[in-house]
Design brief:
This protein is of the alpha/beta class. Helices cover about 45% and strands about 20% of the residues. It has 11 helices and 7 strands. The protein has a 7-stranded mixed beta sheet, with helices on both faces. The longest helix is centred in the N-terminal third of the chain and has 20 residues. The radius of gyration is 18 Å and the shape is globular. The chain starts with 9 loop residues before the first helix and ends with a strand.
Length: about 300
């Protein structure tokens, strides 16, 4: 298995992207910064916001989460999932981490506004260097942040460290289609064609989109227990066309023009949406789930 080499600039670039793009996403889409679940076959009629909420609930159900008390939300965005989990599990304390100071500040303000500041807290932190003691959390939740981790084994090792014995790691992440060889990164996978790689690079240039088989192999190596995987791609296919339509709306276009004063990252992100649509339609980009228990 080949992993991408260390890149000292990657955390800064990810933070910069979300610092620039998150305010517009919040303005149009609200607090949830992840895909929606439109039924097992992707054919259920519902609002996009409801689909995003349903995604959280369906992932928690699939992951057999029942009564967590200390939760770490890795890649928390502006805290939408953290607050939903806090409401769903009244005894839980949720900590969210993000590389983006802008997201962190917004997450804290949103929790204060709805009376959840005492049960949710947010901080700027690198998921590969988590600022927590060993065995702190009984649930580590990651909803669409694993694709930003270029070194999956390093990340899962850090997750293992901060989980309590018996704690659960629950990940939903962008992956790519199955290939014969595991790679932990689309740029170095020999099973992908040049055309495949070109599209994937348009979606997520700095990091490594891998297979959920990558995660499973690493989890087995690290001696995690009760490993379970799933592919939920059909359930999320309607989401990216909805994002593309919002980008082309008058409100979206005005918002994109306004972001130019802070940089070009939001426009680049908007451009990548059409590649997400194409990738999911082709079956190249997938949504992979994996959960496991620390022995």
């Amino acid at each position: 298995m080949v992993a991408l080499p260390p890149d000292s600039t990657l955390p800064e670039r990810i933070a910069n992207f979300y610092d620039q793009s998150s305010p517009l996403w919040e303005e149009i889409w609200g607090e949830h910064m992840h895909m929606g679940h439109y039924g097992d076959k992707g054919d259920e009629e519902k609002t996009d916001v409801q689909a995003q909420i349903d995604m959280i609930d369906r992932v928690l159900e699939w992951g057999e989460v029942t009564a967590p008390t200390r939760v770490l939300d890795v890649g928390c965005g502006v805290g939408g999932s953290s607050r939903h989990i806090a409401r769903k599990f009244p005894d839980a304390q949720i900590t969210g981490v993000t590389l983006s100071p802008t997201q962190c500040e917004s997450a804290q303000k949103r929790s204060e506004a709805v009376g959840l500041a005492d049960r949710t807290n947010f901080q700027v932190a690198d998921a590969l260097k988590l600022p927590f003691e060993d065995a702190t959390f009984d649930l580590l939740w990651s909803l669409e942040s694993g694709e930003h981790m270029p070194r999956k084994e390093e990340w899962l090792t850090e997750c293992l460290r901060v989980l309590k014995p018996g704690g659960r790691l629950l990940i939903a992440t962008w992956t790519h289609k199955d290939t014969a060889e595991l790679s932990c990164g689309h740029r170095v996978n020999p099973g992908l064609t040049d055309k495949d790689k070109k599209l994937l690079v348009q979606v997520l240039p700095p990091s490594g989109v891998g297979l959920y088989g990558d995660y499973k192999a690493i989890a087995e190596k690290l001696k995690f227990a009760n490993i379970k995987t799933a592919d939920w791609s059909p359930s999320v296919v309607p989401f990216w066309p909805a994002v593309w339509r919002s980008a082309l709306s008058w409100r979206g276009v005005k918002g994109l023009i306004k972001t130019i004063s802070t940089g070009w990252e939001t426009l680049r992100g908007a451009r990548a949406v059409r590649y997400m649509v194409k990738g999911f339609n082709q079956g190249l980009i997938r949504l992979g789930l994996i959960t496991m228990i620390k022995p």
